[in-house]
Specification:
single chain, alpha+beta, 2 strands
Length: 48
């Protein structure tokens, strides 16, 4: 019989982002504007 070399998986810890990371992503998403052109191209503009 073949020998299995698998290990028990450790329980993963619940990973939570830092408040700074969440704030950065939210602020960035509020500042990004997508402009669609007539040639079916999209431009992403970061408004500051």
């Amino acid at each position: 019989m073949a020998k299995l070399y698998t290990k028990k998986k450790n329980e993963t810890q619940e990973m939570l982002p830092k408040k700074e990371t969440v704030d950065f992503i939210l602020n960035y998403s509020k500042a990004v504007r997508i402009v669609k052109t007539t040639t079916k191209e999209n431009f992403e503009i970061v408004v500051n």
